[in-house]
UniProtKB/TrEMBL annotation:
Keywords in alphabetical order: Membrane, Transmembrane, Transmembrane helix, Transport
Subcellular location: Membrane
Membrane topology: Multi-pass membrane protein
Transmembrane segments: 135-157, 169-191, 203-225, 277-297, 309-326, 338-356, 362-384, 396-417, 423-446
Main subcellular localisation: membrane
Source superkingdom: Eukaryota
Annotated Gene Ontology cellular component terms: membrane
Entry-linked InterPro entries: MFS, MFS_dom, MFS_trans_sf
PROSITE patterns: MFS
MF terms (GO), sorted A to Z: transmembrane transporter activity
Protein name: MFS general substrate transporter
Amino acid sequence: MERDDRQDTPLLSEDREIDPDAAFGGKLARNELEARLLSKLDTRMSILVLIYILNYIDRNNASAARLRGFERDLNLSGTQFSSVLSILYVGYCLMQIPSNTLLVYLGRPSRFLPCCMMAWGVLSLSTGRSFVGVMYTRFFIGFTEAAFFPGAWFLISKWYKRRELSQRMALLSCGSLISNAFGSLIASGILDSMEDVGGYASWRWLFFIEGGLTVVVAFISLFILPDFPETEMTWLSPAEQALAQRRMVEDAGMNEDLYPKRGSTSRLLMALSDWKVWWLALTLTSIVISLSFNAYFPSLAATLGYGRTLTLLAPPWFFATFVGFGVSRHSDRSEERFWHVVAPLLVGILGFLLAMSTMNPIARYISLFLMAQSYAGFIVYLSWASGTIRSSQKRAVALALINMVSSFGNIGGSYIWPSAWGPSYSASFSICIFASALGILLCFLFRQHLALLNAEAERKEAEMDEPKGYRYLL
């Protein structure tokens, strides 16, 4: 239930009050209230990690199924398997902006996101029996999955301040890394034990079980996920809800309730006309292409020459999860973004070079660890991108647009790992190195631009003798 009159809360009674902590009983009382608020938020938001794990498992289970007769049973040939992977991102791209626009219009992520999750779970467990059937199913899985990541990204950015974002985005994004670790173990267990059970191939059971689990978790999340701070919620006290809104006003350096609400078309035009949004999208696309090895990790692990390929996948992703969380936590504490993005990407390049230079199984397995940890740069970049878009009205569409454009990197990345380039995959690694280098260059130029904006803001404040205002994180 939306509040009709927000002026009765301590948050908005006076946006420029001398002591912003006074409405909450002083600084000490506010800190205690904020700690309780964040504890409640973190508890409820944690369900997003589980959803993201299942999101990635349902998206990537075709790669695991490929090792147990998926291509043979569906009579796939040539680039058809690559098309099966990439068609998901066609639907994913088409629905990015409409889904986030609809999310803002409805104002109920606690209902919208779980319903979309139920839809892709049902589609996953009913994966088709032919190439055409699988293509249709995968397209609509992407169509419904499109709502989750940009929606969750926007939901987190509505509740957490910029210096809190990277750590929370790390927890969310670690869901994809954990899914690669646990997903491979789960897939290994199902594929090893479910062959011909009930007359179905084990790879079909993989889709049945993982899709069914998604539907169950989606139903549970209906009762856990929060809505936006402006929506009245029974699990928050009036003071906690007022503080939740106040925090975001202070972090953005402006009160959006004092400005007219914009329609979906106006928000879209705001995002489309901002060159920074396109720059962020291009940079993320480059990073996504460099991470395209993810979908082909089972195939890369198979080049090591060991039988239990899926089991070998878990340790690199556990390592990546640890690195991703550690780097993101340090990024928040130091309030620095650029080097926390670039350093993991540089280590990832070392992994690509190592894999290109040898076919030694031990060296190649080490390279998988180096490649996987580059996801830490991707995680911090998401927080950096979100934090550079101050207006939440614009941010909803901008984040969807950035994610949509970057999804074309997933489509292109699906075609740079053909079996014909194996087992060395030198050409594939070369493309990833170029994409990483381009992403690093674009990050550097963007950082320089933000530094100039910060210097200009500082100069104006000095001239006007004003207190320090909003600064971009570099």
